[in-house]
Amino acid sequence: MFVFRKSPRSRGRTTRRLLLAATAFAASGPPLEASAQPAAGEPSSVLLDTLTVSGDGVGPTRAAPVGLNLRTPDRGASRLGLTPLETPGSVDIISGETARLRGQDTIAEAVTQNATGITTIAAPGNGNGAFTSRGFSGPNSIQQLYDGTRLFVGANTVTFPFDTWNVERIEVLRGPASVLYGDGAIGGVINVVTKKPTFTPVNVVRAGVGSDGIARLALDSGGPIGDAVAYRLNVSGNRAGGWMSPEGDFRNLAISGALLLQATPDLAFTLSHDLGYQEPARYWGTPLVEGRILDRIRFSNYNVRDSKITWADNWTQFKTEWTPSADVTIRNTAYRLQSRRHWLDVETYAFNRTTGLVDRSDYTEIYHQQEQVGNRFDAAFKGTLLGFRNDFLAGFDVNHVDFRHTNNFSTVGSGLVTSVPLVGYDPGLFPVNGRASPAYATSTDQASVFAENRLILSDRLSFLSGVRFDASNLQRENLVSTAQFEKAYQGLGYRFGLVFNPTPDTALYAQVATATDPVNSLITLSQSLSGFKLSTGEQVEVGAKGVFWDGRGEWTLAGYRIVKDNLISAVPGQPNVATQVGRQSSTGVEAAFSLQVTPLWRLDANLALLRAQYDAFDQTVDGATVSYAGKQPIDVPERVANLWVNYAFAPRWEARVGFQYVGEVFSDFGNTARRPAYGLVNLGLDHQVTPASRLSFRVFNLFDKVYAISGNAVDGVGTNWLLGRPRSVEVAFTTAF
Description:
By secondary structure, the protein is mainly beta. Helices cover about 5% and strands about 55% of the residues. The protein is built from four helices and 41 strands. The protein has a 22-stranded antiparallel β-barrel. The longest helix has 17 residues, at about 10-25. About 50% of the residues are buried.
């Protein structure tokens, strides 16, 4: 039987003491930034040792240092709040300050340049927020969360969050995570945790300028409002003329505000609202000429002159946390997300060898109106089970999502093709008779129950288990023909794992986990896809991790195999057409290492090697059956690596160099449209001008490498690549007051 241990209700007194100690510490000197790292992470000659607010609690705690953070509790890989050292899985915890120090202003940059084996396939069509992990790609296989809440994917698009200024940490769980967050997580989960209200006064501003007209301005403010209320406000804005011409400029604004009410020592309420507004670059790729990018068109944009892309997201949360005893914690989060998106573009470009012109097609106008309302509840208990120490958590999650899609797929835009010269062209205007009209609306209800358990069999051995059951119901109406259909899905996920600690600082583990992926984007499922089965998968993983040299070094090593059945994949060159692949698998090894070599030198590195392939995939091409068995999945690299080296070469000065490598990928099923591997070098230099201010200099893509983030292919031939950032520089000044 399960027995609860009774403990004195001393949490209130402890919390008060922590708050008073934090206030006294802050009074000794102003912090450089709210989430700056302690000396273990970055040399103290450059960064101040300050305080931050934990992601789940209400009291200040020390910020997670640069490194693997194996002793830092997180909620992304387990709702029990285990550390990565206690978790039978592969977990990366990236502190927000690490991302900002390395010049990573977007979530995509922070994840791909720091986490192990994660790459981006960001494009305007997916909201610049799509990733690959462990052989799988896209927002329907790598799930994204905001403060632990799942963001439902509308038409393969996620546009929020995008800025790292308000981020406390990013938790990345690699491998199936349906047992935690439901379908759509066979490749992994990325959980963005925001800065929280604090009773320690915080006021920080940052201003930056750079090449291509880049300008950045940001504010972080927080502190007490009386004895029981605290606040946090983060505002950041970015804009640039862009490196593509024309229509390559961008601008965005992110506002995040939260109020904390510590009603009693054991009861806290937090109300927060986040706004994200983006006008990204209206750039969809550069056409290939004889299989390569010509220097003279590298910075050319073939979109129309009046193109538009706007994304507006509003996210409101109300959190309650009650801790009636040291052994019981009850949490509830109610939330509402609104997304409004608009595209007006010509999106496909291909060089015509016969005419020598660039053929432009897919004149597209789309509107998204999405609203997600939901509630998540869980209760955690510490006690004993069969005489062993035991942690148990159970809860439920309910959502209702309304989605409305307006498009021009039935107008002249769907079939219009125009041609322009490679250089010296007139971009032209979007056709007035090709505009969008209401197309369809969906209503989706989702409910789930979940449970996790950690049975501590001895001081060295623990057994972890988890289960989740999801039920979804979709109703879709064609707003033109008024035709309707309804579809229901059910999914079951589970995870079992063992963790053995040969020493207190070393862990060996093994786990088995299952997952389900939705049939394309669930809330925008079309009737043509409604007959497909849910994609199911299973992973077996073994690994080891540890901390050494008094915490100055950390390491992880993992091996895994994932098999996924009945997956859905887009057909290259055929927009809005999908096929169900028989089976896909990936087998891989991942390693990460972090070491404070000396007080002046620091090294952080990771490497991912995998073999990903279609095991059974037949497709009809021109009336004949073609097998793609053994081929590498689209957009999936099999070699990924990151390296960061820091050197505090003089008092109050520090330099850093980062190297990112992404292996070759393919844009088609047959692996004939190849996108080459690339390596990028980024530089950073920081000077601690005063105890409360820092001057930073950044160089991105030092050697001006031409590389492709994503690409398209038709009939096995690459047509265009969406190019990454060229060489650029930025200077930023950060100060506390």
